[in-house]
Amino acid sequence: MEDRSHKVLLALVMLFLFAVIVLQYVCPGTECQLLRLRALSPAAAADPYRAEDETPARFVPRFNFTAGDLLRRGGFNIKGDDLIVFLHIQKTGGTTFGRHLVRNIQLEQPCECRAGQKKCTCHRPGKRETWLFSRFSTGWSCGLHADWTELTNCVPSVVDSKKEVRLRPSR
């Protein structure tokens, strides 16, 4: 009798493992509706920063941005003397974003990018000066992967060296 109960238990374990494997083939990842049991529970809509036992949260978000903060617009005058300096922080999607700045932004005079070249010319409308300081528009003018300190010291001298003294804006 004991041997038979072991066989039944083994059969149930095997059936469970088979069901789990089949479920993984039918519903891979977290997209499967059968696996979203937690979404149906009332605790799923609760505050993610509150512990289940109602103890004070160990993690408190530091940046509570309002919708107005996220939707505010900055004043940038492409026809004036304003300059965007792109600080590339490694491993944060900066290369993709930098490429997006020179290739995909809809402007009165978009950047001119030639096939096979990494640098694009981003001139202000009607002028021969750039509005964007990044590796995709000016190259590595301040060195490879320049940080904030290097850019702060380097950008004004690089940008102002290309203008006559009387045309240099006060920064």
The helix count comes to 5
Order the strands across the largest sheet as they lie in space.
1-4
Morphology call? elongated
Terminal residue distance = 91 Å
| Main sheet specs | 2 strands, parallel
Decide which structural class fits the backbone: mainly alpha
Instruction: Catalogue the unreliable spans.
Output: none
- Give the averaged pLDDT, no decimals: 79
Using DSSP, what is the number of strands? Answer: 4
Portion in strands: under 5%
Rg, Å, rounded: 29 Å
Helix content: 25-40%
- The succession of helices and strands, N to C, reads HHHEHEEEH
Main location: membrane
Membrane topology: Single-pass type II membrane protein
Organism: Chionis minor
EC number: 2.8.2.-
Structure notes:
By secondary structure, the chain is mainly alpha-helical. The protein has a domain of 90 residues. Helices cover 33% and strands 5% of the residues. The protein contains five helices and four strands, in the order αααβαβββα. The strands form two sheets. It has a two-stranded parallel ribbon. A two-stranded antiparallel sheet has the order 2-3. It catalyses: alpha-D-glucosaminyl-[heparan sulfate](n) + 3'-phosphoadenylyl sulfate = 6-sulfo-alpha-D-glucosaminyl-[heparan sulfate](n) + adenosine 3',5'-bisphosphate + H(+). It is found in: Membrane. It is an enzyme of class 2 (transferase).
